[in-house]
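User: I'm preparing a small set of examples for a lab meeting where we compare how different chains pack in three dimensions. I only have the primary sequence for this one, and I'd like the structure in token form so I can line it up with the others. Please keep the answer compact; I'll paste it straight into my notes.
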Amino acid sequence: MKNFFTTLSNIWKIEDLRVRIINTLLFLLIYRVGSYVILPGVDPASLQHSQTAKEGLLGLLNMFAGGSFARASIFALGVMPYISASIVVQLLGIAVPYFAKLQKEGESGRNKLNQWTRYLTIAITALQAIGYVRSQIVQSAISPVMGQGLFTITSVFVLTAGTLFVMWLGEKITDKGIGNGISLIIMVGIIAQLPAAIVDEFNSKVISPNGGGPLLFIVEMVALIAVVMFTILVVQGTRKVAVQYAKRIVGNKQYGGVRQYIPLKVNAAGVMPIIFAQALMFIPTTISSFFPSVASNSVMIALSTYTSWQHNLLFAILIILFTYFYTAITVNPKQMSDDMKRNGGFIPGVTPGDATSNFIDDVISKITLPGAIFLAIIAIIPAIANMVHINSTFARFFGGTSLIILVGVVLDTLQQIESHLLMRHYDGLMKTGRVKGRTTVPTAAGTVPPAI
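Assistant: Understood. Below is the structure token output for the 452-residue chain.
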């Protein structure tokens, strides 16, 4: 405990770090206050969609938005349109030569990609806002003063402005705060749902006469901690590849001649395979909504049921496939080999050039399989938790996208705080080792070193 207070004292002594942390907290407070500002023309007392917005994909979006989606807030769409635009721009960098060229132009290229991302964010937000207003806000919740048409137009403008403001807050946190702003906004939205979920689970297990008692609730909390620890292992797992650098004499100084390591991530794809797989898993539900006659089909019912073994098996297979796919398009062994050769480095026992590229590709292929399986297990744990009668809201914290984002963002933020401490010759956050951060939210320039 003494070391904990000493670390807090050291953090407070560093003016730049103290200001950044305070700025971060203030920006996040603005976001949380704004999430409770209801859209103009909506009668909160008559809002009927709050319960339906807590299930399935809508429940996931509501969690990322910190409950704003169910409250019909001006921040109802959160940063998800921005993340969608970032993913599209990132994929365009692979398929379109113009965007691939921008990715290689350094700072100027990143600025252009960010500009494209902002334009695309506006378009995506406007389309999603129309769908949100028409499908999630029923006629009875609209004030009689405003007609349906006027309400839709004003709401689209307000929701688009709200998303752009949240995006601006995220960029300000990144510039003037600590950590990645967009990731922190998503993390705060997810954590905001945790206290209520724990209270609901406590009431259902302890207060309710047929809930199972306090022992069962304690077992669930221990299981949650174990899942978090397992997720940290998956996120942090690396395979170190030894690299030897040749000696170079420049003037009177010697450079190189040392052995270093390339840390290849076991889960190099991050949370993206789960996001892609989830998008595909909602296709059966979408088809059933357009073709009611198909909805009664046993296969469609099984694939649309969150807790069915068919749904979870297909979900796990898709995650494994997308993990290989996303790792293949984000990790380039050829470029790693060329950069290593250019800097006078080589892997002991492996010839520089194509042999090195093939060696790295082989190592990545071998470690990606266990990483993909572990990721699939984490993704289906919430469904398993729901099947053993854990509250659906609380079950989402047992795995899936939300837990991986939480773990990645927290580790990355702690790593940045530790870097500030070490630069000022203070001890790090832990005496037994260093915090290794990793975020999971992609941006236009690539995956940030992590919202969906």
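A couple of notes for your slides: The longest strand covers residues 238-245. The chain has two domains: 14-178, 183-452.

User: Perfect, thanks.
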